[in-house]
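Components:
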Amino acid sequence: AQSVTQLDSQVPVFEEAPVELRCNYSSSVSVYLFWYVQYPNQGLQLLLKYLSGSTLVESINGFEAEFNKSQTSFHLRKPSVHISDTAEYFCAVGSRNTGFQKLVFGTGTRLLVSP
Amino acid sequence: IAGITQAPTSQILAAGRRMTLRCTQDMRHNAMYWYRQDLGLGLRLIHYSNTAGTTGKGEVPDGYSVSRANTDDFPLTLASAVPSQTSVYFCASSGLAGGTTDTQYFGPGTRLTVL
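Structure:
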């Protein structure tokens, strides 16, 4: 069985400060890893994903995450956050099935960016 | 292209009533999913369908049923609603890339309150 742990339910930071949102997973098979972002009253949007290849993946708005197989982690980082980054962030792990995919989500981390 | 649409946006329902949440996608994705989102629990998979005509149970299927008569539509039915089904419901879909699926795309959600 797969599981995802997001230890921090809420992370408050000041604008332009760096941030790290932690994600650890457990799985007995090869996995895909995802970070989704949910802005208030909206659905989830894909932020970035790791499928294979380079362990460092980046999003178009400055976030990055590194797949660390030995530590079973996929932490999300941004060197300088903006007010507009305030949202809830979900880490998810998916298995490599053919035809469909089941995602297991973490409980989410609420990022609160203040001026 | 609308992506995924869900209806209704929100609904207040008396316990014991029947309710169908609608989900339609226009991306010709083969797989579709229903999740519920509850505070502190993240997203949990209710049912999924890897192709038209087939469905499967997720993590929390009790009290819910689905059908997949065609590629585009994946309705979720609560036969007799109970207060514990108060939640935000998200529909998602994913396509094929090289024979396996990866990214799931989410609808805007339906907020359901059962009194």
